[in-house]
Amino acid sequence: MNASETRVVAITGGGTGIGAAAARRFAQEGWHVAVIGRRAHLLQEVAAATGAMPLVADAADPAEADRAVSAVGDRFGGLDAIVANAGGHGFAGLADTTDADWAASLRGNLDSAFVFARAALGLLRAARGSIVVVSSLAGLAAGPSTVGYTTAKHALIGLTRSIARDYGVDGVRANAICPGWVRTPMADAEMDEFAAAAGLGDRESAYRTVTADVPLGRPAEAAEIAEVIHFLASPASSYITGAVLPVDGGATSVDLPTTAFGRAGM
After folding, report:
1. Closest CA to 84 of 53, 111, 56
2. Total count of domains within the chain
3. Of residues 149, 167, 207, 239, which has the active-site annotation?
4. Which residue range(s) make up the domain with 121?
């Protein structure tokens, strides 16, 4: 436990979607919360709703990450957990991905987690704390035309396991989650684009289509992912480290070559 006797969490990509939902969940449990991101107005909205400390910073920039971590430590007296949630970028195939696109994908998804975790490591070792990395089902399998995103999300799993292996001796735990489709602003935009391209009419039709072969038959709500993040960051998961947990409504349990049988009612 840190000096304040109240647990402290820092969440990158904390201004929207899963990050904002995680901020709400931790705040409900009485944690001190810091939300880190590059869009001040979104961070301020989360701060107003949760009491979180908003910090405008690029988690992939070493100087800015160090500054943000120091600000959290100074404000709350320590740091018990980080949620490496910043991400995005990399939605094209190999032939259509420029060098700049590739670099942006690795920076936004992988570097942001690596740099921020490295900056926070000293405080996490002192607190015997926890790191939760938000990867994706794209960290376990490849979707179409997402070479940068898929590569970076796969790499996040290696990063998680490496941290768990190296720093478990210090009591630091690191785990990754791999969400499937989640209702977030980013996913909503993807559904709108898909609906238009596929002639589906609206966003809800698109969500139904992309989750038709998911056993639970629906996308997740961001609050459901936040529950899992909170569990992995908390002492309730004290003997879990190096784990990679799909939070996908059962999608990874499906044998893809047999989905046609299911659609035929067999």
Report:
1. 111
2. 2
3. 149
4. 8-180+221-247
